[in-house]
Amino acid sequence: xxxxxxxxxxxxxxxxxxxxxxxLDDNEAEEFDSRExxxxxxxxxxxxxxxxxxxxxxxxxxxxxxxxxxNTVKVLFTPTIPxxxxxxxxxxxxxVRLLWCLPPRFKISVTITPGTHASEHAINKQLDDKERVAxxxxxxxxxxxxxxxxxTA
Amino acid sequence: MTGKLKAxxxxxxxxxxxxxxxxxxxxxxxxxxxxxxTIRLWNYKDGDKSTLKCLLADGHQRTVRAxxxxxxxxxxxxxxxxATIAIWDYKSGQFECNATLEGHxxxxxxxxxSRSGSMLATCxxxxxxxxxxxxxxxxxxxxxxxxxxxxxxxxxVWHPHEDILASASYDNNVKLYMxxxxxxxxxxxxxxxxHTSTVWSLAFDKTGDRIxxxxxxxxxxxxxxxxxxxxxxxxxxxxxxxYKCVCTISGFHTRPIYDVTWCHLTDLIATACGDNSxxxxxxxxLSDRNQPSFSCISHVNEAHLQDINSVQWNPxxxxxxxxxxxxxxxxxxxxxxx
Lengths: 153, 338
Fold this sequence. Notes:
Number of helices of chain B: 0
CATH superfamily of chain A: Fe-S cluster assembly (FSCA)
Radius of gyration of chain B: 19 Å
Strand order of the largest sheet of chain B: 1-28-27-26
Distance between the termini of chain A: 27 Å
Distance between the termini of chain B: 8 Å
Largest interface: A-B, 12 and 24 residues
Structural class of chain A: alpha+beta
Number of domains of chain B: 1
Radius of gyration of chain A: 16 Å
CATH topology of chain A: GMP Synthetase, Chain A, domain 3
CATH topology of chain B: Methylamine Dehydrogenase, Chain H
Shape of chain A: globular
Number of helices of chain A: 5
Order of helices and strands of chain A: HEEHEHHH
Order of helices and strands of chain B: EEEEEEEEEEEEEEEEEEEEEEEEEEEE
Helix content of chain B: under 10%
Number of strands of chain B: 28
Largest sheet of chain A: 3 strands, mixed
Oligomer: heterodimer
CATH architecture of chain B: 7 Propeller
């Protein structure tokens, strides 16, 4: 089977986050910000290419919204082509990575950047259905694929 | 009347998501199930004295999504993501798994016993609703496979007095089914269409003449039954009845409403929401049957630490409610009048 997008555009990786003195102070309660969320997901590997979601610009820090006090994290992701058959899997890998890493108080929403995929609405609905996500994670085959994508994050 | 919902007991034991609870018809026992593949039976006692009675652990290979007591209280049915339904019977002092029903292609999402106990309904992500006939000696026979929905079916519920079945789906609709008297074929006899996203759950009121539905679209809807020749002039096409949406309750829930329960003792409606809240609704005095209004008489913010997946009114003890959540807890609440 051929690849959906054989020749994707590559982008530079951003610099590592600078550690400030405040970061090392254990007494300082720190809020989550978009950079932290970005750092959790930018290293996820694309299911088709040995490239990260950051290099393919599927995820971008400017498309992440965090309201720590309100316990919400909203991530928009952008499939490389509008008919990408891997979009659901990519969305699921971002969602699962955040579900596993963030404190359970957060309500996590992962949706497609508006206008960038032909089946945007259907994929968003699936990713937002907690029951389907829970069932998918119990599927051995699917969770093996997901683990592979997330292992590099 | 106003009132306040007060937590009276927290039942710890499950690990991971608790998906569903079901009160025993006598109201003295509560069953819960979840991601840890177990079913737990709790003795209900007033105050904070409820305790674990027993643990049913070896029935399913994956998440136990839903459970339901038969109306006689002798059997418990459990539906699992492993595509099977298990039937547990109470014999010689303990619960034993006496039958496993196979047929659905993938995750079974809900299970319900008919009022008479002679039928069982199940539904699945495979888009189908199955009606099983219950024979003696643990024999279950598939009486119908209903393919009225175009997507994942989330919930099945029986009418409280008649053999009318309702199902709610990811396709945004609720379907109603009955057995045709002439040819004994089960058929879809109605569609409740108005929600703009997944319908997660529904409940009948004590008469069966009303249905409340809860949805991902953050609203509740109340549906009123109309018979042919009704004085209101509501058209009833080629059937025995129609359920028409007479009220939409919006502006309260801020996330999907995963479950709704309509108390047959107090007429109060309770909801389980993804915003960690439990809300209680009551029909206003002097409300018009054809255009009713409901008010939210109690709102428990942070009733659980995470999404609430199910709420169930105790069928015998007035004002007692069970809830369960992603946070692994089962809680018992009591409605106190103020």
